[in-house]
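Page 42, continued from yesterday. The earlier attempt failed because a stray header line got pasted into the input along with the sequence. Redoing it now with the clean sequence only.
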Amino acid sequence: MVESIVLPPEMTTISEYAFAECSSLKELVLPEKLKSLPSYALRGCTGLKKITSGEDITSVGYSAFGGCTSLPEISLPKSVLSISSGAFAGCSSLTNMVLPFVGSSRGYSKTQESLLAHVFSETAEAGMSPITQHYYYSNYYSGTWYDKTSYLPAGLKRVEITDETLVGYGAFENADMIEEVVLSSEQMKSIEAKAFQNCKSLRRVELATGIERIDESAFENCIVLEDVAIPESLAEVGLGAFRGCEELSSLSFSSALTTIGEEAFRDCRSLSQINLGAGVETIGRGAFLGCDSLKDLALPLALTQISESMLAACRIERLSIGPAVTNIQANALANCSNLVSVTFPPSVREIGEQAFANCESLEILRIPGSVKRIGANAFSGDRALTDLAIDEGVELLENGAFRDCESLGTAALPDSLTQIGVSSF
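This time it went through. Structure tokens are written below.
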């Protein structure tokens, strides 16, 4: 019984079913000049453990590797232009895949063909685990989102993408067996929304060196993600991009980063170190809400406002606000119980409702005259506050601004005040 086959290097074609059901075949060396691996070419080669291909293959047919239940890894060259559905159906021993792109071909997003599940099967087989992914289908009149349940190898641990411009919408969504993803494509520019959402075993991601954008919920709920190598090219982190990544402990960005979306790092409970770079201009609402290991954060000098709930419930101890900030929005640092010091620059015009409420360690506070309004309950519940100075120029204290500041013994108020709200003290 044949266990190893080496095909002539100049051969350019092989037929469908060429080696189908060759259960004794363990190793196959394909021709260097082979252009296509046709449908069912290796179907049912249950003993196949190693395959070597040339660099000229442009297509992989339907179920070309179907039922190769002993194959531990597959590596397709960058020459591949298309991979048919079910190409790796039933390949239950796969642990490592190196692919030029995700799905059927390059450059697609939101379609059924742009999902990792596309190259596997919708039929349950031994050693395969079900995952559900989402795709969008539209015709001339309307479009609808659909669910697709497919079966991926239960032991698939690593995937590398070598020659693609993007990782499409939901491409790896719910693939909760994968532990490592390497995006080595030099021309990759973006990771689309929900690309890796709910990949609950994903521990390490190496991002391509040219990536500029990580979209909405791209890594949301990757609950064991520990290591993300951020490229210097990254300019934008979208809404909820890393929300719920509970084991992510440190991140560092370059000066290319300008925008951090709403709730981008919400509930990253192990995040203790983050370097935002010098170029960030916008940080969205709740960006670091619930990051209760975050004790220190240097805000970028270009930042113009501290947004609503941006750092709420963090363990920030000291905060120096940059010279471009004009507005501190509602709940910005509410419930930061470890905050002992905050420094306001003369650029700040407004401190919003409950902005520093329940900062129970804050003892000394000076508010510059540039601030015109201190919002309702802005510092309420700051029980350790003993010394308060409000400079000349502040005009409005809204209701409850310093309510329940039980230790406050001295408060120097300016003549510029035109209104003090109900229960301000």
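Notes: The two ends are 90 Å apart (CA to CA).
Reminder to self: strip header lines before submitting.
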